[in-house]
UniProtKB/TrEMBL annotation:
Keywords: Methyltransferase, Transferase, Transit peptide. The keyword Transferase applies. The keyword Metal-binding does not apply. It comes from the Bacteria. Gene3D superfamilies: Probable tRNA modification gtpase trme, domain 1 (3.30.1360.120). GO terms for molecular function: methyltransferase activity. This is Aminomethyltransferase. GO terms for biological process: iron-sulfur cluster assembly; methylation. Transmembrane segments: none annotated.
Length: 245
């Protein structure tokens, strides 16, 4: 790996006296209790509870920094502005900062989704690009992100394994898509899961993304058809626990 900068990520800054309250009513994670150095993975959903954007929140004083997919940053800002209305909130690209990653940088926070993903932080960009290395590492652990992999307005938030990856709070109050997300959780109705399968086993009807360079197909498959031996351990354990309830 050369460098630590993730070139495929961008930063949005949410500022203004109503910034945190604004995000609190939109996102799947609690924003009001966000603390410095303790990032949270969250989603902005459709009213039906399907994933539109996923990103990581960072506290920065009174502001919130959104660590998001660079290719979707402008679309995310536009979507947030639709909800902003007359609130005292500013939404802008933070060009002076970048997202960094390293598998071994204990002086920085762990990725909030899964400790095995490694360490993540925000700082000015440095030479080199760690994005390809992180992508390979992330996919090897069965963790998906971004519009292409999750499927914009196609996949219910809990079907993306969001609960297991700490992407939802059930006691934070209402947010967009909350009703269906909570219903699935309390009724134990997550019957399909986003998983990676070898390209030779791809099923186009279930496919969310084809990754020929990795030899993988990311697909939404029914839980009963999944072989636990082929799943990452964290997901196999979660599915086993759900079946036992």
């Amino acid at each position: 790996m050369t460098g630590t900068t993730l070139s495929d990520r961008a930063i949005l800054r949410i500022s203004g006296e109503e910034g945190k309250a604004f995000l609190q009513g939109l996102l799947t994670r609690d924003v009001l209790t966000l603390a410095p150095g303790q990032p949270r993975w969250t989603g902005l959903l459709t009213p039906q509870g399907k994933a539109l954007f996923d990103f990581i929140l960072w506290g920065d004083g009174d502001d919130i920094l959104i660590d998001c997919e660079a290719a979707q940053a402008d679309a995310l800002a536009k979507r947030l502005n639709i909800y902003r209305l007359r609130r005292k909130v500013a939404i802008a690209r933070e060009e002076g900062l970048a997202v960094h990653w390293s598998p071994d940088a204990s002086d920085h926070p762990l990725d909030p989704r899964l400790p095995a993903l490694g360490h993540r932080w925000i700082a000015p960009a440095t030479p080199g690009d760690a994005a390809p290395a992180f992508r390979a590492h992330r996919l090897a652990l069965g963790v998906f992100e971004g519009a292409a992999e999750l499927g914009q307005d196609q996949t219910l938030w809990l079907e993306t394994n969001a609960e297991e990856l700490h992407g939802v709070d059930y006691d934070k109050g209402c947010y967009v898509g909350q009703e269906n997300t909570a219903r699935m959780h309390y009724r134990n109705k997550v019957s399909r899961r986003l998983v990676a399968v070898p390209m030779a086993q791809a099923d186009e009807k279930r496919q969310r993304a084809a990754l020929p360079d990795m030899g993988l197909s990311i697909e939404l498959r029914r839980v009963e058809t999944l072989d636990p031996a082929t799943l990452p351990s964290w997901l196999a354990t979660a599915i086993e626990s759900q079946a036992a309830e």
